[in-house]
Design brief:
Distance between the termini: 55 Å
Helix content: over 70%
Largest sheet: none
InterPro entries: DUF6341
Shape: elongated
Protein name: Uracil phosphoribosyltransferase
Pfam families: DUF6341
Keywords: Glycosyltransferase, Membrane, Transferase, Transmembrane, Transmembrane helix
GO molecular function: glycosyltransferase activity
Amino acid sequence: MKAFFEGIQSLFVDFLFIPLDGLRSLELSHWFVANTINWIFMIICAVAMVYWIKQLRIFDDAGTENQDTTAHSFFK
């Protein structure tokens, strides 16, 4: 069983973390390039938030949203 977990360790440390090790070594010279993954996720989240707010505004302007406090049976 110990060999199984050491195999998992070897897979992650020796193979799957190689790109992240490269980003870590790149951080000292090019901070913005090393954080490209973070920038991409922040852009995706910002676009998703703008889309979500736009959709909320569409439903609010149309008046289709039921804002009554008894909209759900457990509020009665």
